[in-house]
Amino acid sequence: MTTMYGLWEVYPGNDLSTLALPDYYSTYISYTLRMSRHPGTGLRVTGNFPDARYMSFNIYASRSGESLNALTDYQIRTLDPNANPFVAGSKAPPDGEYVVNVQPKPDSDSSGSNAPENLLSFDPADLEPEGLLTVIIRYYVPKGEYGGVRPPAIELYHLSDNSAVRPQPKP
Fold first, then answer.
1. Rounded CA gap, 131 and 43, in Å?
2. Angstrom distance (rounded) from CA 45 to CA 149
3. DSSP letters for 88-137
4. Four-residue CA torsion sign, 54, 59, 61, 62
5. Do residues 140 and 73 lie in contact, with contact meaning Cβ atoms separated by under 8 Å?
6. DSSP assignment letter at 164
7. Contact 50, 94 (CB under 8 A)
8. Structure letter (DSSP) for residue 74
9. How far apart are CA 13 and CA 88, in angstroms?
10. Which terminus of the chain has a smaller tally of CB atoms within 10 A, N or C?
11. How many angstroms separate the CA atoms of 132 and 109, rounded?
12. CB of 128 closer than 8 Å to CB of 64
């Protein structure tokens, strides 16, 4: 039975039926969307840093299980006044806000100067035939349930102007 954490499905690492190569001390949360139904869009994940030893973002082609991109905790940049507690030497407490963007790779004639920070990009051809993309966040040794933070918010946005898609799709 799948547990839900907001819009995210929960996979405890100590459950032998959890995803590909689970880590006993990790909690995985996943969100899957059929991106082929939403051309010209990206996903914006807004959340808070957990009280955990480590966290990471990974995106996968859902059917093949192929890893398409990843972002490790210390690589996540924040906007002031937030700070990333996973950066070496940081004294920032957990719970600061982050934003991670997931979107198709731009056309070769597009400029990369407008790319958002904390970008996980993918080639839509890698999602064929179903067009399913899965975002997985891993919390390693979280303190308390989910590192004491709320589920990250997910918003589908238009690549053309960064505005939110209305209505938002359901996973």
1. 14
2. 14
3. TT--PPTT-EEEEEEEEPPPTTS-GGGPPSSEEEE-GGGGTTTTEEEEEE
4. positive
5. no
6. B
7. yes
8. G
9. 26
10. N
11. 26
12. no
Q: Count other C-beta atoms under 10 Å from residue 114's C-beta.
A: 9
43 and 162 Cβ atoms separated by less than 8 Å: no
The DSSP call for residue 47 is E
Of the candidates 130, 137, 127, the residue with the CA atom closest to the CA atom of residue 30 = 137
Of 10, 14, 139, the C-alpha closest to 72 is: 139
> Which among 113, 49, 52 has a CA at the least distance from the CA of 83?
49
Tokens encoding 21: 């190569």
171 residues of the chain, pLDDT tens digit each:
567 777 898 887 777 666 556 688 888 899 999 999 999 999 999 999 999 999 999 999 988 888 999 999 999 999 888 999 999 999 999 999 999 999 999 876 555 567 789 999 999 999 998 999 999 999 999 998 899 999 999 999 999 999 999 998 876
CA–CA separation, 142 vs 36, rounded Å? 34
